[in-house]
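Format notes (please read before filing issues)

Several people have asked whether sequences and structure tokens are stored in separate files. They are not. Every record keeps both together, in the order shown below: the sequence lines, then the token lines. Line labels are part of the format and must not be stripped during preprocessing.
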Amino acid sequence: QVQLVESGGGLVQAGDSLRLSCEASGRTFSSYAMAWFRQAPGKEREFVARISASGAYIHYADFLKGRFTISRDNAKSTVYLHMNSLKPEDTAVYYCAQGSELRVGVYDYWGQGTQVTVSS
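Then the structure lines:
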């Protein structure tokens, strides 16, 4: 079955950087779009970034303002989220998701999440 396993979360200070990883298994990684979402305490889950199967098309949430970068390594079946200039409001559980290349916004598998905590 498909599994997505996130790693790289932790406790950092405001202004620090962090790289999250999500390793996928169970089906052909290079055939599917990947995305990152996050959910802060007491808030709904929100979209962060999406990358197409080939990596050619990338979309970010407007609130990021260039601080985060999504990338993927299809040879390693891994998607990354590079986070720079972290702020306390970035504190959340970060989830990776895998979904349809053609149906943007449709994700059928999710990871268990990794906690990112940014102290001020």
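For reference, the curators noted about this record: The two ends are 40 Å apart (CA to CA). The CA atoms of residues 44 and 116 lie 16 Å apart.
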